[in-house]
């Protein structure tokens, strides 16, 4: 299902420093479904939703309301708003309009968005403590290198002693920060921000995402997150009435991980040749384990493929919740070991020559 997007000149585009939050979209979608079930029309519902909303979302809903009142379908007017409503949302709305199940499809979408938000929040919560520790360690290290170690340089210079390589390394770093710290610290901060910005660029995802899926500690967690999203998205679309071929194309264009994106788009092409979904999954054993393959095969035979995929999504989401809660406790000893090694290296580098000098003086 290909969707044409309307090109808007850059000088007509709205600039918003604060994007629409996922919570706002979830709440709006739930309220939309309730209003439609109560008997309101799409245009009436959009007017009420716009009055209840604020900021950018209110402007988007007002635009949708005007265009729907002019005679266009909701699915068509959502296409230019693709930055607010993803392809999954738009496709489900279009299918709901054509099949008369718009309110039910909106409920499915709200549930999907809510689960996506919960997963993202759990990941952020799991990463909060390690990030605080790393940032605090970074600035503490900068402070020691800038203000403490330079004092040690003067001490060791006055002793005129032969120093081990570890001590010379630490003192070289201290001297560098003493003379060029005002350049090094801003450079490190800017370098980090540029690196994060580059990693967010889509053209690099084909290189960075495969690496992340093989990265120690987090690779199993990332696989489960993407499996949950894949199963939930495809299952929801199938239950909404979207054929499996179109579902895979939509999901392939909406998944965040490049490797799983390409697998879904590749499956969509294989489906066109007449192969069954379960047979196609066997081509990607590292992405979709035997549990998914067997459940999909059962779903195909029983005619409940959507239910099977949603069952798998619930299974992986529960697994993700458990892993996220334990993620900080798994990373904590690793961080402590790394920090301990660095602190130990610095301490030994400073204390070992002092001990050697004092021992020789006693003799």
Overview of the structural elements:
By secondary structure, the protein is mainly α. Helix content is 78%, strand content 0%. It is built from 14 helices and no strands. Helix 9 packs across helix 10 (244-254). Residues 1-17 have low confidence and may be disordered.
Topology readout:
Layout: H1 22-37, H2 42-52, H3 55-69, H4 74-78, H5 87-99, H6 102-159, H7 165-199, H8 205-212, H9 219-239, H10 244-254, H11 258-271, H12 277-281, H13 290-302, H14 305-362
Helix pairs in contact: 1-2, 1-6, 2-3, 5-6, 6-7, 6-9, 6-14, 7-14, 9-10, 9-14, 10-11, 13-14
The mean pLDDT is 81
And the CATH topology of the domain at 10-115? Answer: Receptor-associated Protein
What is the CATH architecture assignment of the domain at 10-115?
Up-down Bundle
Largest sheet, if any?
A: none
Backbone shape:
elongated
Query: How helix-rich are the residues, as a percent range?
Result: over 70%
Which segments are poorly predicted (pLDDT under 50) over 5 or more consecutive residues? Answer: 1-17
Strand content: under 5%
Find the count of extended strands (DSSP E, 2+ residues). Answer: 0
- The N- and C-terminal alpha carbons lie at a distance of 86 Å
Which CATH top level class of the domain at 10-115 fits? Mainly Alpha
The helix/strand series, from N terminus to C terminus, equals HHHHHHHHHHHHHH
List the total number of helices: 14
CATH H-level superfamily title of the domain at 10-115: Type II secretion system (T2SS), domain F
Gyration radius from CA atoms, angstroms: 28 Å
Structural class, by secondary structure, is: mainly alpha
